[in-house]
Specification:
Strand content: under 5%
Helix content: over 70%
Number of helices: 16
Structural class: mainly alpha
Radius of gyration: 24 Å
CATH superfamily of one domain: MetI-like
Distance between the termini: 19 Å
Shape: globular
Number of strands: 0
CATH topology of one domain: MetI-like fold
Order of helices and strands: HHHHHHHHHHHHHHHH
CATH class of one domain: Mainly Alpha
Length: 320
């Protein structure tokens, strides 16, 4: 029986996440049913006969009530069956496997660069708050986050791929490539993703540090003559870790879920490109599967952020 506050809160967050994912699955299913057009017509073409269309709708189960189709779809997902793509008859789980791996690879390397860079810039901005380093860092990061991803992508593509020819403009990856070759191929989408998420993490780190710097124990450390850099790194940052972790997790979720535009711009063979291709074809099972996976990743990382914040709270770890 759960009695410790930490265990109770963690269990509550996990249960809430599962309920939220179920609610999102219903919204995804309902949203795909509202898409304009006819799936059977899109598959067979405009020249299909009414009999052929009726037979295909019956074969795909489109004549069943919506709630029956939803529970059949959900039951299949719970058993690891994401369904079959309507346009090519391929198993969706098999098709998504490699593309999901490509998306995670892109998000992983973007995070490896963005997270430590944002934290370091946030610490520097907090150290020189109100002075020119702080204003310079804040100005540059705010300028990058103010531009949409596709604008940053096309600017980077023009200068780094077309004009200076440093990186390829199309991020094609395939089996047999080494890690170095893959990183060179995806350098531009990594750069765009880093610029997009950097400002938010940096500003949250700066704000969290400055908030902690107003504490009494920080004033005591200053009176003892400790250097400002040591006070920030050794005393302020460890106590500001909870909000920093939260914003890092939110941006990691964005790196996985929000890569759709970046993947389309650079023709990267990830889940985002796969989703957009099948939205155009009105391949509903693929759209539903991709939407649910994106939602599961986002909700899962948010739950992880909540759990880390709970574990980082000493008042919960050591209740009186």
């Amino acid at each position: 029986m759960l009695r410790h506050p930490v265990l109770i809160l963690v269990a509550q967050r996990i249960a809430l996440g599962i309920l939220l994912l179920l609610a999102v699955s219903a919204l995804i299913f309902a949203g795909t049913q509202l898409l304009p057009g006819d799936v059977a017509q899109a598959i067979l073409g405009q020249s299909a006969t009414p009999t052929a269309l009726a037979n295909l709708r019956a074969q795909l189960g489109l004549d069943d009530p919506a709630y029956i189709r939803y529970f059949n779809w959900l039951w299949g997902i719970l058993h690891g069956d994401l369904g079959t793509a309507l346009t090519n008859g391929q198993d969706i789980a098999t098709s998504l496997g490699k593309r999901f791996g490509n998306t995670i690879f892109l998000a992983f390397w973007a995070a490896i660069i963005a997270v430590p860079t944002a934290i370091i810039l946030g610490l520097v901005a907090a150290r020189y708050a109100g002075r020119w380093p702080d204003k310079l860092i804040s100005g540059i990061t705010l300028a990058t986050i103010s531009l949409p991803e596709f604008v940053v992508g096309y600017i980077a593509m023009y200068f780094l791929a077309v004009k200076w020819r440093l990186f390829p403009s199309v991020s094609m990856v395939f089996d047999g490539m080494s890690v170095g070759e893959r990183l060179h191929a995806i350098a531009l989408p990594i750069l765009v993703l880093v610029l997009v998420v950097l400002a938010h993490m940096m500003r949250m780190t700066r704000a969290a540090i400055l908030n902690v710097m107003q504490s009494a124990y920080i004033e005591t450390a200053e009176l003892k003559g400790l250097r400002p850099a040591n006070i920030i790194v050794r005393h302020a940052f460890p106590n500001a870790i909870a909000p920093v972790v939260n914003v890092v997790m939110l941006n990691l979720a964005y790196l996985v879920v929000g890569v759709v535009v970046v993947e389309v711009v650079f023709v990267y063979p990830g889940m985002g490109q796969y989703l957009v291709d099948h939205v155009a074809k009105r391949d509903v099972p693929v759209v539903q599967a991709c939407g649910l996976i994106f939602a599961a990743v986002y909700i899962g990382l948010n739950i992880l952020a909540d759990v880390i914040s709970i574990l980082a709270n000493p008042r919960l770890r050591h209740p009186k």
